[in-house]
Amino acid sequence: MTTLIACSHGTDSPEGRRTVEDLVDLVRQRMPGTRVVQAFVDVQEPTVVDVIERERRLDDVVVAPLLLSVGFHTAVDIADAVRPHENVRQGEPLGTHPLIAEVLAARLRTAIAGTWLPGDHVVLAAAGSSNPAAVADVAAAAEHLARLIPAPITIGYASAIEPRIGAAVASARRDGAARVIAASHVLAPGYFAGLVRKSGADLVSAPLGVDVRIAEVVVDRFGAA
Ligand SMILES: C[C@@]1(CC(=O)O)c2cc3[nH]c(cc4nc(cc5[nH]c(cc(n2)[C@H]1CCC(=O)O)[C@@](C)(CC(=O)O)[C@@H]5CCC(=O)O)C(CC(=O)O)=C4CCC(=O)O)c(CCC(=O)O)c3CC(=O)O
Ligand SMILES: [Co+2]
What we know:
Keywords: Lyase, Metal-binding. This is Sirohydrochlorin cobaltochelatase. It holds the Pfam family CbiX. By secondary structure, the protein is α/β, with parallel strands linked by helices. The protein folds into 2 domains: 107 residues, Rossmann fold, CATH 3.40.50; 107 residues, Rossmann fold (3-Layer(aba) Sandwich), CATH 3.40.50. The protein is built from 8 helices and 8 strands. The strands form 2 sheets. A 4-stranded parallel beta sheet has the order 2-1-3-4, sandwiched between helices. The radius of gyration is 18 Å and the shape is elongated. It starts with a strand and ends with a helix. The structure holds ligand SHN and cobalt (II) ion. The site of ligand SHN has 28 residues, from α3 and α7.
């Protein structure tokens, strides 16, 4: 049997925790016959190291990151935990999958109450990482999103990388945007989602949240690992 370890960041937000749990439940429903368990890289327990240690004795294991971009957590935390074990594999993060762009577009449509206006500008608001590979992943996510919405898109980061979200919002306005909408490129409510809300955008979309399309991406990443 194979165990899928759904490894998210971890958050102090009760709503964020519930969101991730519900998302993992959706994954579980789609994978009868696979053991699906949660693990975390930061803030919450159990750690991915501990869960791998527990699961690898009985099963093949795939760690499916519930993270959007390659970054410190995928390339160091998860990779280091996986590397010593022959029967443990690591899946790709989720954010470059076209279905994620569909969810982003749906959250944006809700934020604008269904109507795009001339002069709308979207800032794709991502966490940011000290790992430069994150930039390419967020750019790929922006390209997918660009096919689905009529507004121009620029990118802003909550931490580690310039431009920050607030700066990206301000420069869109300087360049003539009539309405700036921040697209929350985060999985769940929490600290980073809060930073996006405070970025000064006119409207802010909800985190990706609980959605069967995201569960589908997790299953896909599991299958490709
Ligand atoms: C509140 C905090 C936890 C706390 O300490 O309480 C927190 C929370 C969350 N981070 C999330 C995501 C990511 N965090 C990183 C990276 C880092 N996160 C760090 C700190 C903190 N992260 C604390 C705030 C400190 C502050 O900024 O003031 C860094 C700086 C230092 C460290 O870990 O110690 C480390 C830099 C490592 C490096 O780059 O060197 C990456 C990028 C990457 O992986 O590289 C991603 C995106 C992964 C992806 O792509 O998905 C999510 C999920 C959001 C969602 O739902 O999607 C939450 C949960 C939430 O928002 O609540
Ligand atoms: Co973090």
